Amino acid sequence: MKNANIDDFQQEIECIYKEEKYSVRDNGAVLRHPRDEKRPRPTDNKWTFGKPNDKHGYMEIASVRVHIIVATAFFGVKPTKEYVVDHIDTNRRNNRAENLRWVTRLENALNNPITRKRIILRCGSIDAFLANPSLLRESDVDTDFSWMRTVSNAEAQVSKERLLEWAESDKQPSGGTLGEWIYQQPAMQNYPAETAQKEPDILMSLTSGAAQRNWRTPTEFPCTPQNAGNNTLVAYADNLKAGAIFSHNQYGSSLVINRGFSEDKQSLYVITESSEGEAIKPYSLAKVTFEDGLFVHAGSTFFSREGAEKQFTLAQGLEWTGGDSIDDYC
Questions:
Q1: 289 burial via Cβ count (<10 Å: 0-12, 13-18, 19+)
Q2: Helices marked H in the chain — which ranges?
Q3: pLDDT 10s digits, 146-185
Q4: Range of the domain at 103
Q5: Quick one: 28 and 139 in the same domain?
Q6: What is the domain-level CATH number for residue 25?
Q7: 51, 138: one domain
Q8: How many domains, in total, are found in the chain?
Q9: What span, in angstroms and rounded, lies between the C-alpha atoms of 97 and 164?
Q10: pTM of structure
Q11: What's the pLDDT tens digit per position in 284-310?
């Protein structure tokens, strides 16, 4: 397997953490700056993903946990002392910005479906855990660090998808190592994004007449026309009023900001905003096509509204007149 490329990033910003200045990339790499008027230390001025600590599994630079530095840079200082950084895919060495978020310890246990599944396996049920949280220490949830590693963007997406699929299923562990299951599947042997997709690429949605392309979480699309007649996409567009719920699933809802058609009128594009205030990538651009009697939905997520609006404009065959955005792509 290839190692994640430290120079493969889209955004780089600076932050101060524990009175140290860092440059931080959205791929999870950090560079510590020398202190003012001080001689550079051995680990200063060097880009690094950090060194793994075998006791707790996290990446560190000079005994400072890298994921906290990255979260501070991209999401600000933690709101209160009760908050911790959640690795969404539970890979403690995947410190890509989109894989991190500030949550309370209880939110981390209950809102992360992968962590929740592991708690159920350890404690028997979430109710048992809530009745007696002492049944489980944080270190009990993930004691196997051997599968954890820094990952490319494509690897991160596929491994998270596999873990979420497991979390949503009724499957029990069936032998073998976690690392083999996540990384050694055929879809991961050559892992550019286009080869990481799994078949089938189209799934039926929770709304009648709707389907999803490369959109794994079962989702409702409340504005889907049920009697569209001949003007199918036009009928759909007419239902998409600003502020309407475009999609809804177990992770939240997305609300319509704007919609428009491709030049050939064969695709409907919808720009939305997440209703969840803490979403890492709160903006989305969905593409809706009408295929074999189904409204097929696909989409991409964005850090900023500008990034989504730029792609929305380009998708309609129009010229983008706004500023360049460095966080455009999911």
A1: middle
A2: 66-75, 105-111, 113-123, 126-131, 138-141, 153-168, 178-183, 186-189, 232-239, 305-315
A3: 778 888 877 777 777 777 777 776 655 544 455 555 655 4
A4: 12-143
A5: yes
A6: 3.90.75.20
A7: yes
A8: 2
A9: 18
A10: 0.51
A11: 999 999 988 889 999 888 888 998 898
